Amino acid sequence: MQKFRFYAVRQRGSHMTMYCDGRPVPVPKHDPIAEGALRAILEKLA
């Protein structure tokens, strides 16, 4: 997952994952996305 170069930040009480260029990838804390599912989503967007 390092090739995507994203990092997690907290914004307005929600867990957010940000791409290195600043595009947000929301991960709601009440419905967390598993790492495998998140990787699949990022690969589709890349």
Helices and strands, in order, run as EEEH
For the largest sheet, list the strands in their spatial order: 1-2-3
Structural class by sheet pairing and helices: alpha+beta
- How would a crystallographer describe the biggest sheet? 3 strands, antiparallel
Helix content: 10-25%
What is the molecular shape?
globular
Rg measurement, Å: 10 Å
Average predicted local confidence, pLDDT: 62
Number of strands: 3
How many distinct folded domains? 1
Low-confidence stretches: none
Number of continuous helical runs: 1
Strand content: 25-35%
| N-C termini distance | 12 Å
Pfam families: HicA_toxin
InterPro entries: HicA_mRNA_interferase, HicA_sf
Keywords: Endonuclease, Hydrolase, Nuclease, RNA-binding, Stress response, Toxin-antitoxin system
GO molecular function: endonuclease activity; hydrolase activity; mRNA binding
Secondary-structure blueprint:
Blueprint: E1 7-11, E2 14-18, E3 24-27, H1 35-45
Antiparallel strand pairs: 1-2, 2-3
Report on this model:
The chain is α+β, with helices and mostly antiparallel strands and 46 residues long. The protein has one domain. It is 24% helix and 30% strand. The protein contains 1 helix and 3 strands; from the N terminus they run βββα. It has one helix at 35-45, and strands at 7-11, 14-18, 24-27. A 3-stranded antiparallel sheet has the order 1-2-3, with no helix packed on it. A hairpin with a 5-residue loop joins strand 2 (14-18) and strand 3 (24-27).
